[in-house]
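User: Earlier you gave me the apo prediction for this protein. Now I'd like the version with pyridoxal-5'-phosphate bound, so I can compare the two side by side. Same sequence as before, with the ligand SMILES added.
Assistant: Got it. Here's the input I'm using:
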Amino acid sequence: MSEWALSELLRPELGELTSYAPHAGEFAVRLDANEAPDLLAPDVRAALAEALGRIAFHRYPDARATLLREALAARTGVTPDEILVGTGSDEIISLLLTAVARPRARGGPAQVLTSTPTFVMYRLSALVRGLRVIEVPLDDGWDLPVASFERAIELGSPNLVFIASPNNPTGNLMSRDRLERIIQAAAGALVIVDEAYVDYAPRTQQDLLGKYPNVALLRTLSKVGFAALRIGWLMGPASLVRELDKVRLPYNLPTASQIAAALVLGSHGSELDRIARSVCSERERVASALGGVPRLGVSQSDANFLWIGTERPAGDVFADLAARGVLVRSFHQRGGRLAHRLRITIGTATENDALIAALSEVA
Ligand SMILES: *Cc1c(COP(=O)(O)O)cnc(C)c1O
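And here is the structure of the complex with pyridoxal-5'-phosphate:
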């Protein structure tokens, strides 16, 4: 009998993947993960603590997340049955890639189309499910290249198209007319417009929902001050929500997260707006300060981070910042045009001052 070998049982794709590991270590200033800074008002914190103190800890969570979906519906203007909630939008991405993944008519796995650079979970989550991923490079302005997308759609007939707008890591909203042309070209596919950073953008793309049957949006509380709760949601046709709901685990959302999120979105909704406004005004201040630093290029941002071009290799600037206690995100390992790019999250005014001082020294 041959020896037992785990590798003989695993999906072959796992051999090429490593687990997602945020940068470890202690840093005085952490601006690497696009979280909002700690701006939570003491009275809101107290209200959350009080509500969490009343949880029935011996019971399973509400499997349908009724109160939370009602709070989301009230805030966004869609109906509760057009909303699916997940443990972060990451979970919803995995549900989409599990459900909307009928193998191709001629055999072979479903195809997933996205851009590059963009949020890495679309690709990772598709690969671990054995799906085929096509990545179209964004153009020189980090916007959507329509002709390349049209060609990829024609050749690949993807089931799913993921477009983050504002995009991570580039920070920009995609041009509206280009986005619509791609949605039209992908009429046979489901197009997911990921609005993780919509709270920091000058406009939403929610009107696409009424206009195109093949569009759904993703949103999250993670980037606007509540990453600890792991609350993300999809807004889209009720028929899609019903199918995804068959794949969702029944008790995916812990009671604590449901209660806290419903409270934040409901009676404390203005807290989210206040956090977003404060981050946006810091963003403009940091962008203009860094814009005056030689050897740096600062692109316009519609999100809570800046996409910075460096003259020196980004890996070197990253290491010099880390040595000064400031952690940012570098993409230098990806090479090419990312070898001179850093992504820097907007923090508190004090954290931002530390960043500006350090980066002015090492740029
Ligand atoms: C951070 C991020 C997410 C993940 O959000 P969670 O709700 O925390 O899972 C989704 N999409 C984009 C584009 C992001 O940058």
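For your comparison, keep in mind: The longest helix spans residues 269-291.
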